[in-house]
Write a structure and sequence with these properties.
The structure holds two protein chains of two kinds. Chain A is built from eleven helices and twelve strands. Chain A is of the alpha+beta class. In chain A, the strands form two sheets. Chain A has an eight-stranded mixed sheet with strand order 3-2-6-7-8-9-1-10, with helices on both faces. In chain A, strands 5-4-12-11 form a four-stranded antiparallel sheet, with no helix packed on it. The longest helix of chain A has 19 residues. The N and C termini of chain A lie far apart (50 Å). By secondary structure, chain B is an alpha/beta fold. Chain B is 34% helix and 13% strand. In chain B, the strands form two sheets. In chain B, strands 2-1-3-4-8 form a five-stranded mixed sheet. The longest helix of chain B is centred in the last third of the chain and has 15 residues. The chains are: A alpha+beta, B alpha/beta.
């Protein structure tokens, strides 16, 4: 298996970034990690994950869609999309890698979202297997193996080496771009490192969270559950859970009056917000109970109903860490199951 | 203390003094506490928790809870009582429908500070003589208690309960705190340094509105930023300065009403020190209009809502802005 010693990782990043833009999860001044464009000297974070997920690369928080220019009675319509260059995201965890599969189901199914597709086509996802999962991790609940992440190329760390395996043609291009730095090595120590991680995975406090009681056929049972009132009672109605979530995919489209024309943009929306899916007749979800219910029903029931049983959650644990009132999908699942 | 609180809550429920109890509910881990309403003795016994992680200020929930039928029991820490007083002053709560039991304050712990030390896989956190023993998936870790204290508790302004119907534990005093130290540090920067500091902090904003929604001073029924008719509602930033403006405007809006409870910074998923904006206003109000603590009482007129002949002249703003 191809590998590189950990002290040469800088050189690898240098070689890759000389050919295309490279983003790695690096430490911020406040100690959290964020995907950051690589610059010489930048170090890979030791944090398990970033605050914002890797979905930002394909589904940015805001983007301009089209521009209208008005001159008298004439309207000029301009396509102002930004074609993107090839880029590499290094260090994506298995949870975030699976989130792309989920976003693809939404944005690449007919009609294809060409803005999203453009970025997917140009992006190479290099994943990094987890070796120190946190207590908030529950990706296994959704059939994800954090020791065997998906993506274009997978990377494992074992002792003082990083091991590489290409999965797609794009992943092979990535490996080729640093071929001179990689060496063939014995993967035995990798196997023992993976076995060690697997032993930890079994002991995770959320290892027993299961989707067996959820899915597309549970609509009436859970929609009408009397648990939603209690669960949503202290929800602040902020958008933290939706904005740090790698699979939340809802957006709003609005027009911005520039003074001499209109810029139509889209931006992330949150079902937690009072104007979410507001229509001419008003808002279909009048209180926080209905908005809160929407988020979890979408992930646990509606999404699998429309996507062959696939759930809209990857168990990354970001909402568990970041919700200001510590309400989250695990607590919701356990409460709904507890009849 | 937790056990005594549960017993007292059960008594007050049983004798009909209150119908509901607002407090904190235990979670999956040692630290993920959720504010919750309890209606029965069984719920209290099962889920009620009061420990080093019950930092959430439940005062704001009383806007809604106090308008429901029947009295609600609220356990409030000293800093939370300032928020309730301010809400009472602004006629946002029905104080008569709330039974307040003052409970001791922090210092409370910040799980992010523990995780910031590289400690992960956290299964349990115990405070043994102000050393934290942290049980993790990767073995036991220790760290000094005071290194894991929430920022808002590290610069605690008061251990005194400014409103209560009953106290559990002793009442404390208003403290000499170091809460303006960082504000002074910012004031002593050059304007460019200060600008750079705030740009780097505020540009992390993801506009989740957690700071606004948790803030006991932000109780508008419909915030201008959510109201399409206001002309300023916007879910996306038109330019790279807009998030910065949002926070500056919000700080202006709560100026003179902010009790410095610190919830905004506690809940920010991006660790933006938002409380420093509020503290700058508090410090300025103290300097320009005389010492004032929002929420200390329910009757006095706030400096910015009042006129006195001694008020500082408008030109002071211009003069102070000159370097």
């Amino acid at each position: 298996m191809l590998r590189i010693s950990a002290d040469k990782l800088d050189a690898l990043f240098g070689a890759v970034s000389a050919k295309q833009k490279l983003y790695i999860p690096a430490d911020r001044a406040d100690g959290e990690a964020a995907f950051t464009e690589y610059a010489p000297g930048m170090k890979l974070t030791s944090r398990l994950n970033t605050v914002r997920s890797a979905k930002d690369f394909f589904f940015p928080q805001t983007e301009n869609l089209v521009e209208f220019k008005l001159e008298g009675k004439k309207i000029e319509i301009n396509d102002i999309r930004e074609e993107c260059d090839d880029f590499v995201i290094f260090g994506v965890r298995a949870c975030d890698a699976r989130s792309f599969t989920i976003l693809d189901k939404v944005y690449l199914s007919d009609p294809v979202d060409t803005f999203y597709k453009n970025r997917r086509d140009h992006g190479t996802v290099v994943t990094l297997a987890c070796d120190r999962p946190a207590e908030t991790c529950f990706c296994q609940t959704f059939g994800i193996d954090p020791t065997a992440p998906e993506g274009d190329c997978s990377v494992w760390r074992a002792e003082e080496y990083y091991y590489f395996k290409a999965i797609t043609a794009k992943g092979q291009v990535f490996i080729d771009s640093a071929a001179s730095l990689l060496e063939e090595g014995n993967a035995a120590e990798l196997d023992s490192a993976v076995a060690k991680t697997k032993a930890v995975l079994e002991k995770l406090p959320l290892a027993n969270v299961s989707t067996k009681n959820f899915g597309g056929d549970k609509l009436n049972e859970y929609f009408n559950s009397d648990k939603w009132g209690e669960l949503s009672e202290s929800c602040l109605g902020c958008g933290t859970c939706t904005f740090v979530c790698p699979t939340c995919q809802c957006y709003d489209i609005r027009d911005f009056d520039t003074g001499n024309g209109i810029k139509r943009y889209r931006c992330w929306d949150s079902c937690m917000y009072s104007d979410f899916t507001k229509m001419a007749h008003g808002n279909p979800r009048l209180t926080q109970l209905e908005r809160f219910r929407q988020r979890f029903m979408h992930k646990l029931v509606y999404f699998p109903a429309n996507n062959n049983g696939e759930f809209g959650c990857v168990g990354c644990g970001r909402c568990l860490s970041k919700c200001p009132i510590s309400m989250n999908i695990v607590k919701v699942m356990k409460a709904l199951e507890d009849k | 203390m937790q056990k005594a609180m549960i017993e007292r809550a059960k008594q007050l429920l049983a004798d009909g003094t209150v119908k509901r109890v607002i407090g904190w509910k235990r979670g999956e881990f040692a630290y993920d506490i959720t504010p919750a309403v309890f209606e029965t003795a069984e719920e209290l016994d099962r889920d009620f928790v009061f420990d080093d992680f019950t930092a959430a200020n439940v005062s704001k929930y009383l806007v809604k809870e106090s308008r429901k039928e029947g009295r609600v029991l609220a356990f409030l820490k000293p800093c939370d009582t300032y928020s309730l007083n301010q809400l009472t002053k602004e006629h946002r709560v029905d104080r008569g429908n709330i039974y307040v039991i003052g409970v001791p304050g922090g210092p409370k712990l910040d799980i992010e500070k523990i995780k910031g030390k590289g400690i992960t896989g956290i299964l349990g956190v115990k405070n043994e003589n102000y050393t934290l023993k942290i049980d993790t998936l990767y073995g036991e870790e220790t760290m000094p208690f005071y290194e894991a204290v929430l920022d808002k508790c590290a610069s605690c302004k008061s251990k005194k309960h400014v409103t209560y119907d009953e106290l559990m534990g002793d009442d404390g005093d208003i403290l000499e705190s170091n809460r303006f130290d960082m504000v002074e540090k910012l004031e002593n920067m050059t304007s460019q340094e200060r600008y750079d500091f705030w740009r780097s902090e505020l540009s992390k904003c993801i506009r989740c509105n957690a700071c606004r929604n948790v803030c006991p001073a932000c109780t508008c029924e419909n915030c201008v930023f959510d109201n399409p008719k206001s002309g300023v509602s916007n879910k996306a930033a038109a330019d790279s300065f807009e998030e910065n403006m949002f926070h500056i405007i919000r700080a202006f809006h709560v100026a003179g009403r902010c009790t410095d409870c610190g919830e905004c910074s506690r809940v920010c998923p991006q660790h933006i020190p938002l409380h420093l904006l509020n503290r700058k206003f508090i410090k300025d109000i103290n300097a320009l209009y005389g010492e004032y603590q929002a929420g200390a009482d329910t009757e006095s007129r706030a400096p910015l809502n009042n006129y006195t002949a001694d008020d500082c002249e408008a030109s002071i703003v211009h003069e102070r802005g000159v370097e």
